[in-house]
Write a structure and sequence with these properties.
Layout: H1 2-11, H2 14-29, H3 36-47, H4 49-54, E1 56-59, E2 62-65, H5 71-88, H6 93-99, H7 104-110, H8 121-131, E3 134-137, E4 140-144, E5 161-165, E6 168-172, H9 178-185, H10 204-217, E7 224-225, H11 230-239, H12 246-253, E8 256-257, H13 269-277, H14 290-293, E9 325-331, E10 341-342, E11 353-356, E12 372-375, E13 384-385, E14 389-392
Parallel strand pairs: 5-10, 9-13
Antiparallel strand pairs: 1-2, 3-6, 4-5, 6-14, 7-8, 9-11, 11-12
Helix pairs in contact: 1-6, 2-3, 5-6, 5-7, 11-12
Length: about 400
Amino acid sequence: MRLDIERLWSQLSLHDVDKRLSLRLIELFSQEQAEVNSAEDLVLSLRAFEQIKELLELYRGKLYLRRGLELHSAAAVSRSLCFLAEQAGEGHPLCELLAQGCFQPIFMRSCMDVEWSSLEIKERERLVEASLSSVSVEAGSFLMGALPEDELAHEREKPRHKVTLDHSLQCLAYPVTQGLYELLIHEASSSFKGASRPAEQLSWLDGVVFCNVLSRYQGLAEVYELPEGSEKALREQRVARESWSGKVNLYAEKVTWNSEATGWRLPTEAEWEYLARAEAEELYAGGDELNDVGWSKENSGDETQAVGQKRPNSWGLYDMSGNVWEWCWDWWDEPYSGEAEVDPTGPLYSLFRVYRGGSWVLPKDFARVSSRYYDYPSRRRDQQGLRLVRSLF
């Protein structure tokens, strides 16, 4: 698939696109004055198409803006490429690239400062489609815990031990975006507003509720059973603007997981690390340099960023290092026992739930693949988000 995408990208030419769109240009110029600006933009896009290609780079089947370009460049390039692709027609290389999701990183960046409610219908559809992109990962075994040469590792990340996952997984390629969350929950809860930024200010119990809502949306069997009154307690906590709730913590203790259900759920801590590591012995999810693969205090500009802007790991998963922490199913325990495990789900109970991955506000040390932390299941912070998985039976 990747070779095919590279072939399509190399086939693109200004003249080919120009010929296919000449009639559309005539139509635009013959319509009302309001259409002239879009026609002029299109002409400029056509004349500068080779220059637009120079602004982009292809990596693992996705197109990215080259580093250093401003946000308005992302919006302009995204609009131009998507419009040109739609008008070029089926079978054209540009149209095929759009259909295969190659423009997702550019599109996500162009929506970073646009709230969900302000997106046009077509943009909303494109954002939801991108947000639901997923990757299938085969079952397997790995060594969980800090790398032997990792001098920054805490004792809670040790000892390294073998973990086997007996089931394959389907995993969302990106953290849950604000657009997807607002579509299904009808609530704009995040501190940093932007449809393609990760949804944050989400507690563990918020995550469990969202998993069930997304499962219903896609016609899948819900994984979690929540005690009656859970969602009301979450709403009351939101209205009261409480970052923590003892009442919600009590509800979280009583959530049960149907392991036979096919719907979306939070990953276990072992699943999360398996997905982030992707069979690689690297500090971060996708490489040994955080700036290439994720966002932390050192490079975030003190805010969350649009998902999908950094390089994915080898399994095509984005933002598993940095941007926002991602809740896991497990109750917290430390250190590891060191014994080999099969499909571990954590201890039966603790005061805290696990989250992984680091965030935009913390140093890059926290974004290492083995780094792990915890909080009350009711806690809501502007650095806590979600990534969902499904068991494939």
